[in-house]
Each structure stands twice: as C-alpha cells, then as structure tokens.
Specification:
Chain lengths: 312, 312
DNA sequence: ACATGTTGATGCCGTTTCGGCAACAGCTAT
DNA sequence: ATAGCTGTTGCCGAAACGGCATCAACATGT
C-alpha cells in the first residue's frame, strides 16, 4: 500500500536517521535516489529543508514544518489502514507506548497481557524513559501513547487524562517507621534515605519539599532505578520514595511497607498524565487500548484513595 | 508544490465531481489517466473505492474511509503551505465559510471587510446554506468554518463556540405591536405572520412552540429568504420572525422594530454554533479569522443581552 | 600533515511509471 | 434506434525513478 509519493517517505526516513545514506540503507534504495528526492522536495517548497553538516543533516525551520505535515500524513495513513482492516474483522497493528518506570511493575504488564489475551493480532512496543523524554518521543512521532509525570506539556500534545497518586515512603517490614499509617518527610530523613537521581521524576517531586526544610541531609544512597531502590529498601538499607503505582500488589507478600507521605498536614501527590499527539486520530486498536489504560489508571486511583484515605 | 502522488489528487477530484471524466476536465488531464490512477489505488487498497453506476461513481465504505484520509492530508498540506508562507511574512490563502443566512446582513460583511483591511492577501469564499447543509459541507471538506444553528453535530465536527441570541418578531414601526417591549407568540398570531419555510432554521426553532398552541393559524405569507421576510415586514405586510443577529443596526434607522419573543414567561433562544472539522489544524490565517469571528459573535451576544435583558 | 572513512551531490543509463489519443462496451434518455 | 454520456483498455511517446560509479568536501585517526 504505497499511496504517497516516495519523496514523503524518503523525507521521513532522512529526518529520523539524520542522514541520507542511513535512510537509504533503511529504505533499501540507493543513496542517490534519496538525495534526489530531497533536492526535488526542496525545489518544490522553494526553501532548503535540511542544513547540510559534514556529519549528516539537520532540519531547518521549514523542514520542521514539513516534518510535522509528513508525520500527520503517515500517522493518519496508519489509522486509515487499521480502519480498513477492522472492517474485515481482523485487527492488527502495533501500539507504541512511551512511559516512565512507575508503570512497568504492574500496570503496564497487566494491561498488555489482558489486552493480548483478547486481541492477539495487536502487538506492542514499549519504551521506558524519563518524563520529559516521554513527551519528546511523542512529539517526534516515535510513540502513540505516552505516560509521564504531568508537567507542562508542549502544545502539540493532548492530555487525555490526569490521575493523581499519593507519593509515599517505602521501608522494610522491620523498619522503625513501618508501624505508622503515614509519615512526614522529616520523620523519614531521620533515617538513611535512598534518593532518586535527577533523571527520575520522583526527584523533581521531592526536591521542592526538601528545599523547604531547614537542613538538607546527606542521602545514604542515590540511584536511578526504581527497581533497585525498591530492592534496597526491602533489605532494610533505608527509606525509598515512590508512588504507590510502582509497588502494586507486591507490598502485600513482600518485605515492603508503603507509607503515604504527608507534608504540612496534606498528602503529597504525584500527577500522572496520559498523552497523545494532538493533531492525530488514533487507529481503532490504539484507541481501544488507550481507553483501557485510562480506565485502569482511574480504577487504581480510586482503589488507592480507599486504601489510603485523604487525611485533610 | 506537488508533493503527493497524483493518485491522491485524482481521487479527491473524482470524489468531489462524482465522475472520472468530470474530474479529468477539472484536472486538465485525460480521463484515461484518472481512470488508471483510481484502478491502481483500488488494487493497492485491495478493495473497490467506488461503485460504478452508469451515471457516475459513488463512494463505497472503504472509499469513504480513504476520502477522510485524503481530506486530512490535503487540508493539512494547506496548513503547511500557509505556515511556510507566514514565515516569510506574506499571509495569503483562502478562508472558506459556510453559514446560515442570519449572518449575511451584518456580522459577516463587517468582519470580512475589517479583516481584508488588515490582511489584503487573504481572500474569502462564503456560501449560504441551511443549517444541516452547512454541517454537511464542512464534513465533506468544502468549507473551513461553518456557522449554523446548534443542532446535534456529527462527531467529525468540533464545536468551537456556542453563542445564544434571542429570537424575536420583526414588525413595521406603525404596527400595533411596535410599542411593546416584548411579545409572545400568541400576540403575534393575532396578526398576519410571515412564516419561514422548513429550509430555514427559524422554522425548526418556532415549530415546537407553535405546536404547543391550541390553534395553528394560517400563515399569511411563507418565504425562504430572510431578506425578503424583512422587507415584507418593513412594508407592514405582517410579523416576521428572526434572530436579532439578522437585523444588526438596520432596525434603528429603518422602518423596522425588533421585539424579543417570550414563551411561557421565558425568552426564546436561538443557539448559534461555530464549527470546524475535528481532525484538522487550521492554517494560521484561517485560525486568525476564526478567533475574530468567535470574539465578534461573543461581543454581539453580550451587547444584545444588555439591549434586551432577560426578563426571568 | 597525511591517509582514511564518511558525508551529500552528479552524470549516465536502463527500467518503470505516467499521460494523451483513439477506440471500445455499457447504459440512459430522447 | 439514435445520440450522448459513462468508465475502461491498447498503444506509444515523455517524464520520472532508481542504480552504479564517481566526485568534492569535511571529520577523524595516526
């Protein structure tokens, strides 16, 4: 199904790879063919689309505009294809997800497994990144659905849903804090803490709170892996901070205890946003999964608020 | 600037004209070329796109799906072009408007004139239709902006704004009703009335109210032109019904008086919706005009509510 | 400073695609 | 039955495309 002129496809490949020859390799054509199509495009637009650096190509301003258009075209073509396919009953396609690490423990594997159980022809691609990288991948068209901490998102993205989860401390069952219902930051800082590095979004959630305190204690351990932090906390090394989402049902049968965090008497929230490219209609199978994702996250949000009712 | 494969453009032309030969004439190519491109498209999609009737072509279900995709592509191409053009400072393009007749007296000419005064390179195409035809033209991609009575709109359209205006009676200055501040339907029906035909949206606004009355009096005159109805009312022929919008400042220095309509003690509203295709990003110049349109209608809505404050 | 590997651009040439002309079959309305 | 419309199909010239080899320009490594 090759509706669109080769120039469109070639341009897209060159933009992604950042090089004409690399694009030619991906497309299985001669580099000269790619080069010519790009030149032809630039002639028709009347303005260069790339800046030729010795080491490859970089988009110019008009190039970025065209990139946006081409992305819209190709993504909408995907949707059209899926619409036609779903007409003959066969759903197949790939849902591409970019998300932060909190989802990998329980939410995403559960959802994907259950969805694959019902629609086996739909495959998945997931990539774990930092919050800002998630939004960036989405903007560049490298993912269909993005889940990230709800910061200010760029205007070319649309926030489909916003769910808030409580931030909390994670300690071993034998930890002195383990018997409390909730904890404050000060209480936690009396013990060795396992601090997240700036590349994790938890860092940016806790940083403003820590800055409010009179003293900024030395963290015992710094890490950039949610998993590692959790395992360290289970071994009694110290207090880790995570959203309840990252724990799932693990907290029941494991050595870990989750303690909702309070600050100045009110809970500390972590806002999770679900994002999609704004200028786009999703394929049916992607839309379907998106609905389930929103529903599931809403369900978890509700369940947690029952388990840890707001104190205020 | 011809990025896209001829098949796309040909398909678009065939869909609009409903005939291969007619499309060929529009495109200035031989009909055989168009025919082949369509056949090639159908082969690549793997399913017929048109039903061949003896008198022309009609879209099949997959054809309609492709039509939607092609429309998205071509409209987004327009936006890209305008983005590039606005980069070099020169705004030019065409804003295509479909609207109901109420706007033609004052709102639209005022706005277009003022906009052309500032951006002379932007041209306009306006088409006056019935409310449902406005929405249909928008769906088919034949207009960029639509203004219609706010009925239930199809899901592929987006309601940008919703403004409500009072419906009222229009009578000559010497008419017995002219001294009143407001009127009810019963009071009007005591006199000869100029009734709108079903093709005008006013008909559908008044019909449910008339049905509530005990008797349905014979209308003196039926017409399908807002203008004609206004002129008839000015000559004292009878009572016409219109939204305040259709009158503008004419009511001051003319023979006409506008009397807001009350029904069961509360005003009768006419909801005006501004619509845009949902799966679409507007070109900069269109977006700019749209903003002004929304602002202007909001302004008029506010002004009228001052002139005729709500009685309830 | 030199060699090497990379980048994108070009000239040449065979293949593919596209478009125009004319003729065809199918249908409709007069 | 005739005339007028429809879409389709061979045939052929023109335009576009892709592949190969080559070139100049630049970066990197020795």
């Amino acid at each position: 199904m090759r509706f669109h002129s080769p120039a469109i496809q070639y341009f897209h490949a060159v933009r992604r790879t950042g090089s004409i020859r690399a694009a030619a390799r991906v497309l299985n054509v001669a580099s000269s063919a790619v080069s010519r199509q790009i030149l032809k495009l630039e002639q028709e637009v009347g303005s260069p689309l790339f800046e030729r650096n010795a080491r490859g190509l970089t988009l110019t301003t008009v190039g970025e505009m065209l990139a946006r258009h081409v992305m819209n075209v190709l993504q909408d073509l995907d949707r059209f294809r899926s619409d036609v396919a779903s007409l003959s009953g066969a759903w197949h396609g790939t849902v591409s997800i970019a998300c932060i690490e909190s989802l990998t423990e329980s939410v995403l594997p559960d959802l994907i497994a259950s969805h694959r159980g019902r629609a086996r022809r739909v495959s998945f691609t997931t990539e774990v990144k930092g919050s800002s990288d998630v939004l960036e991948a989405l903007s560049r068209g490298e993912a269909d659905i993005g889940i990230a901490i709800a910061l200010r998102h760029p205007p070319d993205l649309r926030q489909v849903a916003l769910k808030r989860f409580r931030l909390g401390a994670l300690v071993a069952r034998e930890h002195p804090l383990a018997r409390r219902k909730t904890v404050t930051l000060e209480q936690c800082l009396a013990f060795p803490v396992i601090q997240a590095l700036p590349e994790l979004s938890i860092y940016h959630l806790l940083q403003p709170l820590i800055a409010q305190l009179s003293e900024t204690p030395e963290p015992a351990i710094q890490a950039n892996s949610i998993d590692l932090m959790r395992e360290l906390a289970a071994r009694g090394v110290g207090v880790a901070f995570q959203t309840q989402l990252g724990i799932g049902r693990l907290s029941r049968d494991s050595q870990l205890v989750f303690l909702p965090l309070d600050n100045a008497g009110s809970p500390v929230w972590s806002d999770l946003g679900i994002y999609v490219r704004a200028e786009r209609t999703l394929p049916a199978y992607t839309e379907s999964f998106l609905q389930e994702l929103v529903r599931e996250l809403g369900e978890r949000e509700r369940r947690e608020n029952v388990a840890y009712p707001q104190t205020s």
